[in-house]
Amino acid sequence: MAQVILRLPVVKGRTGLSRSTIYLRISEGTFPHPVKLGARAVGWLEHEIEEWLACQVEQSRLAR
Prior knowledge:
- This protein is α+β, with helices and mostly antiparallel strands.
- The protein has a single domain (about 5-60), classed as Recoverin, domain 1.
- About 55% of the residues lie in helices and about 10% in strands.
- It has helices at about 10-15, 20-30, 45-60; strands at about 5, 35, 40-45.
- The chain has a three-stranded antiparallel β-sheet with strand order 1-3-2.
- It is globular and about 45 Å long.
């Protein structure tokens, strides 16, 4: 099964978060860590971002 790598602009679009918020949440341990693709390039595994989004939806539904 192929793993899809998402670059930052796509992650920002899917999550609605800014670059600084994404990296803040990574440092807090509340957002998936990126995969290093090269010396100056990172990406995120699509399935990890989708799982994170599903968890956010679930938590917001429980908070009602």
